[in-house]
């Protein structure tokens, strides 16, 4: 990051994630934070900043013995985990705090029950969505996927190959919730949710907590793990939250976000050893791949089908198996996987050899964020 | 405004109509499509907002539009996400590009056409559907298909 202190990721941790765990947000927050502290070799008293989407940072901080904090931020609806992560990194860079925990705590949403009770979820303009039966994110994803299929060379078979490739990575990730082998036929046999979007294009809802600890390069040198450095960050917002009204559903916020990101670093997309690109719905990852320019416009589908995102491909992508398989950690999994890849030797069978530069990026459509990490 | 459930049929999802959007729904009730338009620079604005994003004016009024447009994208919902829609599944959602202005989009339903027959860019025109005693929504049908 240009300006300010150099920042490193020194600790990462998950809660015991799973389907309907019965545990509260505080349970998942506590487990994830303690795991990240242990990973880093830090004590509660070392922490002086905390931010989270899900739960409340002040509540979590006192529960975990971090008080007093000198920096905290309650992140509302944002591009998944990237907002807490970017704000934490910049709080350290600017000197507002020295050791900051960024968290995403998310419980498996009883979506339909919530809607039936009158909840509006993330819809700011529900009165222009709900009466038309537009009720769930899978439906705007159906609109984006259909337009993408119309404009690009991608086919349903490419989407099937994307799901198969991700599951292949997940098979080598003990923390993934879905690991059994998957075939293209399995994908094509899964039901449409909002045609052409199929069940296996969607991330896998679960209860989870994730925590990532940011500190200065100087502090990082004395800690347990090999530091992973924050090279550049970018946030983007190009539209309000009505995905359904995006004027261009194919070239959305990732394009702007990456323009901003590359303007903040001397590195380029050609330097990436792996990428962890949001997959709340399959089409999101394909949009990021095209925005990165790793293939020609409209060619992300064939790029995936020809092995471009596999471990031996041009850009190993979503090497933890993605949220479709590790579960909806809401972007935090991509930060944690990128960090482990750059530490080296922590990603087992899915380790990218000699990984030095990794990108992780969240969300699509109206808003996104991205963070570029380096191993030295 | 809240729709009351009756025994025969689940109510539509609860929705809150605010002062900004009330003219849209009042016009729909009378089977007219009206959208907010900046009285200073002429920009149509949907969804309703208090200020014009192009010129900063607060002088925004609702004006009738032609109701003609084309299909930018569409999706066929196969799941029941709310009991009101249980007997409508599958149904078509679409992002309609309205004729009045480039990139002027409206989220609505496509009616009078089956999913395999929908084409990107196909011309459509507005019609109206009563969801309840006090809620009418503008929906779109293939151009020329309405008697």
Automatic annotation (TrEMBL), chain A:
Residues 256-368 form the Thiolase C-terminal domain. It holds the Pfam family Thiolase_C_1. The keyword Transferase applies. InterPro entries: Thiolase (IPR002155), Thiolase-like (IPR016039), Thiolase_C_2 (IPR055140). GO terms for molecular function: acyltransferase activity, transferring groups other than amino-acyl groups. CDD domains: SCP-x_thiolase. Keywords: Transferase. It comes from the Bacteria. This is Acetyl-CoA acetyltransferase.
TrEMBL record, chain B:
Transmembrane segments: none annotated. Residues 64-129 form the ChsH2 C-terminal OB-fold domain. It holds the Pfam family OB_ChsH2_C. InterPro entries: ChsH2_C, ChsH2_Znr, NA-bd_OB-fold, Thioester_dehydratase-like. Residues 25-61 form the ChsH2 rubredoxin-like zinc ribbon domain. This is Putative nucleic-acid-binding protein containing a Zn-ribbon. It comes from Frankia torreyi.
């Amino acid at each position: 990051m240009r300006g300010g202190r150099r920042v490193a990721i020194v600790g990462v941790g998950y809660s015991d994630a799973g389907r309907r765990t019965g545990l509260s947000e505080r349970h998942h927050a506590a487990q994830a934070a303690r795991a990240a502290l242990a990973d880093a070799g830090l004590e509660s008293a070392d922490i002086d900043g905390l931010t989270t989407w899900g739960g409340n940072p002040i509540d979590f901080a006192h529960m975990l013995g971090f008080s007093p904090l000198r920096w905290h931020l309650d992140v509302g609806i944002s591009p998944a985990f990237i907002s807490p992560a970017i704000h934490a990194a910049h709080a350290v860079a600017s000197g507002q705090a020295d050791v900051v925990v960024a968290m995403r705590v998310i419980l498996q949403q009883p979506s339909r029950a919530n809607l039936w009770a009158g909840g509006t979820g993330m819809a700011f303009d529900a009165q222009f969505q709900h009466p038309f039966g537009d009720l769930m994110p899978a439906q705007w994803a159906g609109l984006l996927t259909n337009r993408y299929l119309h404009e690009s060379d991608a086919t349903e078979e490419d989407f099937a190959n994307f799901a198969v490739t991700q599951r292949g990575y997940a098979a080598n990730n003990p923390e993934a919730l879905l690991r059994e082998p998957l075939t293209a036929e399995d994908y094509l046999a899964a039901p449409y949710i909002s045609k052409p979007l199929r069940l296996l294009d969607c991330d896998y809802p679960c209860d989870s907590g994730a925590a990532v600890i940011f500190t200065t390069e100087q502090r990082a040198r004395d800690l347990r793990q090999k530091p992973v450095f924050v090279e550049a960050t970018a946030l983007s917002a190009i539209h309000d939250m009505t995905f359904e009204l995006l004027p261009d559903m194919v070239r959305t916020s990732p394009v702007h976000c990456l323009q901003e990101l590359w303007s903040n670093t001397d590195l380029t997309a050609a330097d990436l050893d792996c990428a962890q690109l949001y997959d709340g719905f399959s089409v999101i990852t394909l949009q990021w791949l095209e925005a990165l320019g790793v293939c020609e416009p409209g060619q992300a589908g064939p790029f995936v089908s020809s092995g471009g995102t596999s471990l031996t491909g041009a850009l190993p992508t979503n090497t933890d198996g993605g949220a479709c398989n590790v579960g909806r950690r809401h972007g935090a999994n991509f930060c944690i996987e990128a960090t482990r890849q750059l530490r080296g030797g922590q990603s087992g069978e899915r380790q990218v050899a000699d990984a030095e530069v990794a990108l992780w990026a969240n969300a699509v459509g109206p808003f996104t964020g991205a963070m570029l990490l380096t191993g030295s | 405004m809240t729709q009351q459930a009756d025994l025969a049929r689940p109510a539509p999802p609860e929705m809150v109509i605010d002062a900004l959007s009330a003219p849209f729904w009042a016009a729909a009730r009378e089977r007219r499509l009206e959208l907010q338009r900046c009285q200073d620079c002429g920009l149509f604005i949907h969804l309703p907002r208090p200020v014009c994003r192009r010129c900063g004016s607060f002088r925004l009024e609702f004006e009738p539009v032609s109701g003609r447009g084309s299909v930018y994208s569409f999706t066929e919902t196969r799941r029941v996400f709310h009991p009101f829609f249980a007997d409508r599944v599958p149904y078509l959602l679409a992002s309609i590009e309205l004729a009045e202005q480039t990139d002027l989009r409206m989220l609505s339903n496509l009616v009078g056409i089956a999913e395999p027959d929908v084409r990107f860019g196909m011309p459509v025109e507005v019609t109206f559907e009563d969801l309840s005693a006090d809620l009418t929504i503008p929906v779109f049908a293939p151009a020329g298909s309405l008697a």
